[in-house]
Design goal:
two-stranded parallel sheet; mainly alpha; single chain; 3 helices; 2 strands
């Protein structure tokens, strides 16, 4: 996921594409690296449908406010 995020963000066509990382990696260093790479939100596995919905709504609100 993190490598894919970096490839997506390195392509100017996709630099503004909303990106949420779904991962089992919850170490602070991994989260920090994802944030520095430009992830919009981070959801740790296992997750519930409610927590996923909340995270997606946060991404949508963030992107809507920036537009």
């Amino acid at each position: 996921g993190l490598d894919f995020l970096k490839r997506v963000r390195s392509d100017s066509r996709f630099k503004n594409l909303p990106f949420m990382l779904l991962t089992a990696e919850g170490e602070a260093s991994q989260v920090k690296e994802a944030l520095l790479a430009g992830v919009d939100n981070y959801c740790l596995k296992p997750f519930t449908d409610v927590s996923l919905k909340e995270k997606l709504e946060q991404v949508y609100k963030k992107r809507s406010a920036a537009a």
